[in-house]
Amino acid sequence: MLQHLYTKGPSSISALCDTIGISAPTVFKMLGELTREKIVEKRGVGESIGGRKPDLFRLQKNVIYVICIDIELFKTSMAIVDNNNHFVTPVKTVSVTLSRNRKAFFETLLEHIRELIASANIDETRLVGCSVGMPGLIDPETGENYSYLLDETDGLTLREAFEQQIGLPVVIQNDVKGSALAELRYGHAIGRKNVLVILMDWGIGLGIIMDGKVQHGSSGFSGEMGHMPFVENGELCYCGKYGCLETVASGMTLSKMAREGILSGQNSIINDLSNKEIYRIETELIIRAANKGDQYSIQLLSNIGTNLGKGISILIQLFNPEMVILSGKIAAARQYITLPMQQAINTYCMTQIREKTQIISSELGDESRLLGYAAAGITWFFEAMIADVKDR
């Protein structure tokens, strides 16, 4: 029942009966107990074709909490979120660089996690777990990342190492899966069956929603869009292959192209905006320059958008989605990315398929992945409880 109320939101007794498969008097009795324990509350009424409108019940706020951690290449964001998706702490962003060494990474991260918990002023017995999202090839079943933090700690998987350090159950997933789940629960993908979510940050990732569910693939590795072969005899990608899409269409490539242009004497306000510190040039700064009318920045973004559009056209023809949602730092460029992207899609994608696909930018904001991680973590908690009861 709690799992249903978390996933579906405010529900009537009839809806709970249908989901759980028990009688209305039993559901009513259970709701009474949960209400007295201040876990569930009556909130509003539902729709009715005729007669009395049914009462709706929902989870009270602050019943359980989960620590959500979004690990990027050069920074990490974290917050504590409750079962109603409310941030009970402000998002804390720290400069923790993702490395291959677990020990150094954990030493820095744990200090910030302790500070976050101390600042929350919550009942720590209601802190049920930690949900972590990060880039890389991640198997959510084994809890291992095959791209980052590779050095083993006493033979432990990355999830086990996290759990040992934090002292809580841990869920680990790929960052774009978090973006896709956030869109499915709270964004443009609500109520839709077949949607692609493109995460455009330092790298390029793909979240696949099919039949209304986020798809992980047999090993959790689905959606490695950025490493599709794209350029014949192209540049060497960090994955070890040549000519991947990321070498011509990622945030890392965008920054690299801007730095190379400035060093070669390109006239651009990027140099001034970075205080002539070219290694501080990142996606946000290039977008800011484009918004000020800087033609070099606009051209850089246009090139990225064209390559992304060609890559997305392949995905549209493979998956035939009803919608493609653009998220991440590069998506913030809006028309500087979307216009050349749409032109490339028009060029490379079959008309009959393209016309049935809506291209739209995410509106969830910078904290959306944390909401996706919260959904994954709390769902895991309820599923673990249900499995535990069934095993008894």
Automatic annotation (TrEMBL):
Transmembrane segments: none annotated. This is ROK family transcriptional regulator. PANTHER family: BIFUNCTIONAL UDP-N-ACETYLGLUCOSAMINE 2-EPIMERASE_N-ACETYLMANNOSAMINE KINASE, ROK (REPRESSOR, ORF, KINASE) FAMILY. The lineage of its organism: Bacteria, Pseudomonadati, Bacteroidota, Chitinophagia, Chitinophagales. It comes from the Bacteria. Pfam families: ROK. InterPro entries: ATPase_NBD, ROK, ROK_cs, WH-like_DNA-bd_sf, WH_DNA-bd_sf. Belongs to the ROK (NagC/XylR) family.
